[in-house]
C-alpha cells in the first residue's frame, strides 16, 4: 500500500453560513402546525455495527429525543463498507421525518471518493440536521503489550517484517487514515487489518489478536479506563482534557510527526426532501439535548469537542470535507479491497 498524504482537520471558523437547505412550508400545513410526529416509531439508522462511536451516540441521543418528541426512537444497525450500506438504505427511506441517520466523516465525506459506487450522494441525498461534535482518534494497545510509547510502536514495527498489525473500523475510515498518515510521515510500514466496525475490531485488540488500533475516544475511553487497553497517543493537535496524561502524536519527538493531526466527526442527517419544518424541529430539539450539562459532560468525557452549527453551516462544512478527502484519497491512491 502506498504511503499516504498529510491530513489536516477542517477549519470551522472559515465556514460560511450563507447556504440554505432545500424545501419550504408551501403545501405542508400539517407539518407546520406541529402534528409530526404522530406516535409512529422513529428509526435512527446507524451504518456501523453495535458498539462503535456512532452507535453509542445514537443510543444516547435517541433515548432523549424519543422522550422529547413523545414517541420511541429505535436504533437500527446496518454496517458495511465504511458506513455506505446503512447510508444507502437511509437515503432511500421516505422523507417524512421517521428516519434519521448517524453520519460520519467516513459515510458523508470519505466514501464517495473511496468506493466506485456507493448508491447515494453524501450531499444531494441528505439534509443535515445536527453536527454532534468532533473527536480525534487515540492509538491503543492491549494492556499486556510491551509497547508504552509511540517510539516503542514505531521501532517495533520497523523491526518486524510486514510491520505491526493495526485494526480499523474499515478501509478509508478515520481509524485507517490515522494509521496511514503515521506510516507516511514516519516512513514505517504497518499491517492494516480492516474490520466491519469499531466494535469487533477493538475486541480483537483487547484480546491480543491484533497489535494495536487507532480508534475514536468515544469507543476507546471506557476500555482505557477499565485497564483493558493502554493509550499510546492521541491524534489531536493538543492533549485532551479527558486524557491529560496521554501525549499527542506530534509530541512523540519522532521526525516528521510534528504537524500530525487527524479529527473525526459525527452528525445526524435525514433523507433529502424531508420537510423543512421537520428538519428545523429536529435541529432545535437535538441541539437542546446536546446542550444539556449531562450530555456536554458525556461528550467531553469521550474526548469529543461539541459543535454548535446551523444547518447551513453544516452543509458548507460537509462540502469542504468532501472536497478535502477527495484530494487526499486521489493523492494517496487509497483503494477499497
Might you state the CATH topology name of the largest domain?
A: D-Maltodextrin-Binding Protein, domain 2
> How confident overall, as mean pLDDT?
87
CATH superfamily of the largest domain: Bordetella uptake gene, domain 1
What's the number of domains?
A: 2
In whole angstroms, the N-to-C terminal distance is 11 Å
Radius of gyration over alpha carbons? 20 Å
The second-level CATH architecture of the largest domain is 3-Layer(aba) Sandwich
Structural class: alpha/beta
What are the secondary-structure elements, in order, as H or E?
A: HEHEHEHEHEHEHEHEEHHEH
Helicity range? 25-40%
Report the sheet-strand fraction: 15-25%
The biggest sheet amounts to: 10 strands, mixed
Uncertain parts = 1-33
Instruction: Enumerate how many helices there are, as a single number.
Output: 11
Assigned CATH class of the largest domain: Alpha Beta
**What general form does the structure show?**
globular
Please report the total strand number as a whole number.
10
Helix-strand layout with pairing:
Blueprint: H1 29-32, E1 42-46, H2 53-69, E2 73-77, H3 84-91, E3 99-104, H4 105-114, E4 126-142, H5 150-159, E5 165-168, H6 174-186, E6 191-194, H7 198-206, E7 212-216, H8 217-225, E8 229-234, E9 263-271, H9 276-291, H10 293-301, E10 305-306, H11 311-332
Parallel strand pairs: 1-2, 1-3, 5-6, 5-7
Antiparallel strand pairs: 3-9, 4-7, 4-8, 4-9, 4-10
Helix pairs in contact: 2-9, 4-11
